[in-house]
Specification:
Chains A, B: GO terms for molecular function: glutamate-5-semialdehyde dehydrogenase activity; NADP binding. 2 copies of one chain form a homodimer. In chain A, 43% of the residues lie in helices and 21% in strands. With 413 residues, chain A is of the alpha/beta class. In chain A, helix 2 (23-39) runs antiparallel to helix 5 (70-85).
Chain lengths: 413, 413
């Protein structure tokens, strides 16, 4: 049984040191961690093999995500080196002003403190989470999927050795050894020590964390993304974007799940879309109006409008106005990413302003919602909540701020 | 029994309209609300009197906060008019850039959506919460203390009439009629409809919300504020600031509760402090070293270091270095406001950087931690968490952002 209070105290202690480290020193450590991962790769693979022997009855894709080999470890090490190249948000001054009382206030970017990461059996997340939290001066407590426990313990041991060798408090990173749900629940209640919880993984895992946590959570979420083909859309562009947004990687949260299309262009464009999706074996479903145009498709149900398929399925809603499109999308979307295809200026602006989502696109694929594609150089996840962070999260979203106030003896009257 | 799902749906519906209102229109409504409060003040006072008749066995200060009269209603109306003068953060572009894929991204400030406010029997908060959330384009669901129910219902009715008369969805503001704890708990679980909960009130109320809410909470919190008198402090400045921070308004969260003092200056300055606090009947407690200098004071216990007195009591800790001071403060503070009194540059910088708190002061009273004193023109509360908002919260903290992405047909490769 992990002593969570003790782990929390140790993490908080470590976070004090981390908050004061220079960017150069943090970068040096990250480079050494990348080297150490390469140096100890055989030992890591031995532990990973043991994890793989222990799992039974899981899907191929699960096992694939759990498996480490030379190539994967090289990718992980390279990923750490990429974090070195990112600019360090800590110490940045967001704003500064002088008050009526002549106090000089500056708002400075600081680490969050202690971050709790809860994720599935993906050992790459273990190292990635360390690299991103360390670069931003945070201590991290990791709770990975139980199937990857031995791998995670080894990875963290490799990182800790580098920390110790460089006089950094090794509790900058800690991993839960006990994978019972009870222990995870205790971790989610450590409000005195953990500043933020970040769950990464399936909708179910995230829901569990949101429902059980007392520590503030950054919710990275599900996507039920829509492409709205406006009455003023270029047909070819609409087809291209829908094919891309559905098929380029259907399992991810920024893939499109729904087509909303204006009735004026539906007769022309829906058959083009159906034809273009055919080679990818995308199953189409639709409302009554869509089925008048594409008679072979199944009737979409209320459940369809709500569902994130993450699969080669799409449902089609025909609307008679952009307002109906916006209302439909705002009713069913998960506030992730939504797109309009149009050549009409007023409609593009209306859609951008009235759709309630982290990312709203005009004439582009929803698949661009991504920390790397946005140019952040990293991605902690994509926030679908409105507090703290919304949309793709880079290093800045792992930070907080504090006010520094310089005076000369002022008292309040 | 309130139908919370229905209230949530209605609030969300209203929030769509509010998000699109121009600043001019929002300001017009706020001015009319102020007028209506004055116009209907007698009816409001009748309901308030009924609330006052119903309460029994409560303290004078409780009843004082609950009571409305002509003067109080005028103050509330003036408060609404002050919100009119604040600049509207909605629509502001925080940043914009072009990505490698030639997508033009702008990050725009938008309302949070639906805010839930949970607070005590203070009718002024009802109107204040409406004014601030409305100005920032948010719908609000109010759950005030049960003792103020009739007053709150009347105040909200007055506001709703103005909304209806001006074609604004009246569900922009709603009040829970059912004051059972169960209903409040249901409200705290409305994750599909409420974007953020803001509890305002006692530490106990806030703790209850943090422990029970599934909706994200902005925690406004307790203050266990310290004044550290450095070895290089000006004695007179230290005394002035301590007297101000303790006695100017001892019941509030930014009042100082603890003195930490360097041993080199303790013998000289502690008696000066004790003398200056004497006219205010401040009870001093101290560690063994402090008691050698001030033999009449009580020994401070572990509980003292942890306690926010909100009263005319202060505890004194003598330290032998600034590092000991920083460690003591980081161990016991509530991350609210901390001050150092010093003329030494290196020590001031060390304290500013190493103290973990929302607001860190050099040579000024902690009493300045306040949205108005910071120049925000409003104060929703003082956040002691690190997510989303930290320190005094103004209008900006009632907003979120979204990314608007303009393309010309880009798909992801």
């Amino acid at each position: 049984m992990d002593d969570l209070i003790r782990m929390g105290e140790q993490a908080q202690q470590a976070s004090r040191q981390l908050a004061q480290l220079s960017t150069a020193r943090k970068n040096k450590i990250l480079k050494l961690v990348a080297q150490a991962l390469r140096q100890f790769k055989n030992e890591i693979i031995v532990e990973n093999n043991q994890d793989l022997v222990n799992v039974t009855g899981l899907t191929d894709s699960f096992i694939d995500r759990l498996t480490l080999d030379d190539k994967r470890i090289e990718q992980i090490a390279t990923g750490v080196e990429q974090v070195v190249t990112l600019s360090d948000p800590i110490g940045e001054i967001n704003k500064g002003w002088k008050t009526e009382d002549e106090l000089a206030i500056t708002k400075q970017r600081v680490p969050l403190g202690v971050i709790g990461m809860i994720y599935e059996a993906r050992p790459n997340v273990t190292v990635d989470a360390f690299a991103l939290t360390f670069k931003t001066g945070n201590a991290v407590i990791l709770r990975g999927g139980k199937e990857s426990l031995l791998t995670n313990i080894k990875l963290v041991a490799v990182i800790k050795k580098v920390l110790r060798d460089n006089d950094i408090n090794e509790h900058a990173v800690q991993v839960l050894h006990d994978t019972a749900h009870e222990t995870a629940n205790k971790m989610m209640s450590l409000t005195d020590y953990i500043d933020v919880l970040i769950p990464r993984g399936s909708a179910r895992l995230i829901k569990t964390v949101v429902e059980n946590a007392k520590v503030p959570v950054i919710q990275t979420g599900a996507g039920n993304c829509h492409i709205y083909v406006d009455e003023f859309a270029q047909a070819k562009m609409a087809v291209n974007i829908i094919v891309n947004a559905k098929t380029q990687r259907p399992s991810v949260c920024n893939a499109a799940e729904k087509i909303v299309i204006h009735s004026v262009v539906a007769t022309k464009i829906l058959p083009m879309i159906a034809k273009a999706l055919k080679p990818f074996n995308v199953e189409l479903r639709g409302d009554e109006q869509a089925r008048k145009i594409l008679p072979d498709i199944k009737l979409a149900t209320e459940e369809d409008w709500q569902t994130e398929y993450n699969d080669y399925i799409m449902a089609i809603k025909v609307v008679d106005s952009i307002d109906d499109a916006i209302n439909h999308i705002n009713k069913y979307n998960t506030k992730h990413s939504e797109a309009i295809i149009t050549d009409n200026y007023a409609n593009s602006e209306k859609f951008l302003q009235q759709i309630d989502a982290a990312c709203v696109y005009v004439n582009a694929s929803t698949r661009f919602t991504d920390g790397f594609k946005f140019g952040f150089g990293a991605e902690i996840g994509i926030s679908t909540q409105k507090l703290h962070a919304r949309g793709p999260m880079g290093l800045e979203e792992l930070t907080s701020t504090k006010y520094l106030i310089r005076g000369h003896g002022q008292i309040r009257k």
